[in-house]
Amino acid sequence: MSVLRLENVSRWYGNVVAVNGVSMDIGPGVTGLLGPNGAGKSTIIHMMGGFLPPSSGTVELDGAPLWQNPEIYRHVGLVPERETAYDFLTGKQFIVAMAKLHKLADPGAAARRAISQVEMEYAQDRTIGNYSKGMKQRIKMASALVHDPPVLLLDEPFNGMDPRQRIQLMDLIRRMAAEGRTILFSSHILEEVERLASHIEVIVAGRHAASGDFRAIRRLMTDRPHIFLVRSTDDRKLAAAIIADGSASSVQLTEKGLQIEATDFQRFTWFLPQVARDAKVRLWEVSPADESLESVFSYLVAR
Amino acid sequence: MNSTIAMITFRAMLGRKRALLLFVLPFIMLVLAIGLKVTGYADLDVSSNVLHRFGLSTLLPLLALIAGTGVIGPEIDDGQVMYVLTKPIPRQVIIFTKLVVAIVLIVLFAVVPTLLAGLIMSGTTAQVTPALTVGVLLGGIAYAAVFVALGVISRNAVTIGLIYVLVWEILLGNFAPGAKSASIQQWSLSVADKLTEASQIKSTVDLPIAVLLLVVITAAGTALATVRLRSLSVASAE
């Protein structure tokens, strides 16, 4: 059982702060590192993988520092985001070479095991340069698994994968986690994290915005005030009726229509058509104004 | 020395289009040597001149630049170096292996062609050929260490290396005697000068100083490359 620990970690480049005072413990099971693009997820994964020193704070695996400590790679497998592997090698040659670099007792057997784990036997004799994106992702995964590490770090593993490849990789990650490994993967897509991770860490603008069980965070996200834009035959009349009910905390008359801040998402969506009917107002348009992931994230940060 | 890293590096070097460059320069020198021999121009003067001006001063630094930066630079640029760095391998072993591969390539494409060209033109007369071959070999080792370090340190290693070779060694060396003495080329020439009695090969640097400087620059390049690889952060590679 391995634990990755970040303690009060900051990382800045010149005077740009990429990661700001983040503390977290990553234990066995699947943890999703969620955040919009440019939030600092890669910076965190790179620090966890020993590829970047924290500007302040400590990053440790079971008490040992990650930075400038090559011995740590006996326990860590890293799947980088970049697609490049050694394109001129075949899948099998690549994995055998990785096994040899780890100085494993039987590189051939270790390579066979890793390749079968990612179900790539059928393509192992083709050169990596001719692989599809999904195949490359899987062979990269095999390279990280060849020494059977207790910790796996995956940087945006689902990027550019088609749905079928995505499901296969999710199954594989679940299997790895069931074996007791500590797995961390980063993603900017909520649904991916929701389907795979039991535990999530949310990073927004370099800050640790939320941490914990996925459902609790999902609730935070749906319970937040939602903003809708509504156009109707009589905006003033509708505004009065909505204010009278109390499921919205504010209604604003704008040139584009009514901007309504709903406090209770469920109740508001159910109640709006009724109010409109009772007030004899015809609704032309109801659209959520802030459904982007970024607005969800910024809500979490401001909270 | 790690044989797996060496194997991957050799395949990467010789599989790339850039590998053609490795063949072109030595090929030109050999064609030149054969041409001079066949037409009867290959006396000791011409022979020493070709080996010195073409072999030591042009072929060697350019080849060493391609080989030295090539064994590590592109791998860092493309991010493949991650697959080597995420292994429990001491960083000095990685650098040492890269250096050995670069030196082997330099031997194959600069040292051996210099030897062959010399033998074709003037045999072993006045020891010019063996002397310059040894000079090219020692200079090659020093260049390799410098260019491997440059490949680790900078994403513009080839450009910087080219500027060093063209501006410092070739251009300034012709005008400013001081700059001339502070170059790997002159130090290797000093060794060659000592090994031959031919008056055509003349260096401005004394042998003990030249040898000392060659050793120092080789050791410094290797050490610097190791230190920089140890703290290579991916952020700088992106």
Automatic annotation (TrEMBL), chain A:
<dbReference type="InterPro" id="IPR017871">
    <property type="entry name" value="ABC_transporter-like_CS"/>
</dbReference>
<dbReference type="Pfam" id="PF00005">
    <property type="entry name" value="ABC_tran"/>
</dbReference>
<dbReference type="GO" id="GO:0016887">
    <property type="term" value="F:ATP hydrolysis activity"/>
</dbReference>
<dbReference type="InterPro" id="IPR027417">
    <property type="entry name" value="P-loop_NTPase"/>
</dbReference>
<keyword id="KW-0067">ATP-binding</keyword>
<dbReference type="InterPro" id="IPR003593">
    <property type="entry name" value="AAA+_ATPase"/>
</dbReference>
<protein>
    <submittedName>
        <fullName>ABC transporter ATP-binding protein</fullName>
    </submittedName>
</protein>
<dbReference type="InterPro" id="IPR003439">
    <property type="entry name" value="ABC_transporter-like_ATP-bd"/>
</dbReference>
<comment type="similarity">
    <text>Belongs to the ABC transporter superfamily.</text>
</comment>
<keyword id="KW-0547">Nucleotide-binding</keyword>
<keyword id="KW-0813">Transport</keyword>
<dbReference type="GO" id="GO:0005524">
    <property type="term" value="F:ATP binding"/>
</dbReference>
<feature type="domain" description="ABC transporter">
    <location>
        <begin position="4"/>
        <end position="230"/>
    </location>
</feature>
From TrEMBL, chain B:
<keyword id="KW-0472">Membrane</keyword>
<dbReference type="Pfam" id="PF12730">
    <property type="entry name" value="ABC2_membrane_4"/>
</dbReference>
<feature type="transmembrane region" description="Helical">
    <location>
        <begin position="93"/>
        <end position="120"/>
    </location>
</feature>
<feature type="transmembrane region" description="Helical">
    <location>
        <begin position="160"/>
        <end position="179"/>
    </location>
</feature>
<keyword id="KW-1133">Transmembrane helix</keyword>
<feature type="transmembrane region" description="Helical">
    <location>
        <begin position="132"/>
        <end position="153"/>
    </location>
</feature>
<protein>
    <submittedName>
        <fullName>ABC transporter permease subunit</fullName>
    </submittedName>
</protein>
<feature type="transmembrane region" description="Helical">
    <location>
        <begin position="51"/>
        <end position="72"/>
    </location>
</feature>
<feature type="transmembrane region" description="Helical">
    <location>
        <begin position="207"/>
        <end position="227"/>
    </location>
</feature>
<keyword id="KW-0812">Transmembrane</keyword>
